[in-house]
């Protein structure tokens, strides 16, 4: 499921499936994107950041078009102890690789991978994501 911002509308709470992972997408070409993510963070229970969230910075292949300082994205990951993935979604190979990484992270967050918990996975990812 995709949401452009948080909080999610409450009128459909009873129909909403369990949320196993949140990916905060930040388009580095848009200051609004970072602001929207920062505003949305207030609506996420802090326990969710313990292995069930990540930041995905897109558009990193074109640093000359950046509206956001990459250090701001990195600091956001550090502040919330959450991995940051960097990707260029306009390149098909990179898009596929990013999707595969996110899917694997989701499998771990949803407890589909025996022996690896989301919290352990988060510990492995933090510090190795950039």
From TrEMBL:
Keyword hit for Nucleus: yes
Q: What is this protein called?
A: Centromere protein M
A GO CC annotation given for this chain = nucleus
Task: Output the InterPro entries linked to this UniProt entry.
Answer: Centromere_Cenp-M, P-loop_NTPase
Entry keyword annotation includes Nucleus:
yes
Transmembrane segments annotated in the record for this chain: none
Q: Where in the cell is it found?
A: Chromosome, Centromere; Nucleus
Keyword line: Centromere, Chromosome, Nucleus
Q: Per the database entry, which stretches of residues form a coiled coil?
A: none
């Amino acid at each position: 499921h995709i949401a452009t911002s948080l909080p999610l509308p409450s009128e459909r709470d009873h129909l909403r499936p369990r949320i196993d992972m949140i990916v905060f997408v930040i388009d580095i070409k848009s200051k609004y994107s970072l602001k929207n993510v920062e505003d949305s963070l207030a609506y996420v229970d802090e326990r969710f950041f313990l292995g069930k969230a990540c930041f995905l910075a897109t558009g990193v292949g074109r640093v000359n078009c950046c509206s956001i300082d990459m250090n701001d994205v990195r600091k956001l990951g550090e502040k919330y102890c959450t991995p940051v993935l960097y990707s260029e979604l306009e390149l098909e190979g990179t898009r596929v690789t990013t999707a595969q990484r996110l899917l694997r992270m989701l499998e771990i967050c949803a407890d589909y991978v025996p022996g690896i918990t989301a919290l352990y996975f988060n510990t492995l990812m933090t510090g190795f994501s950039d």
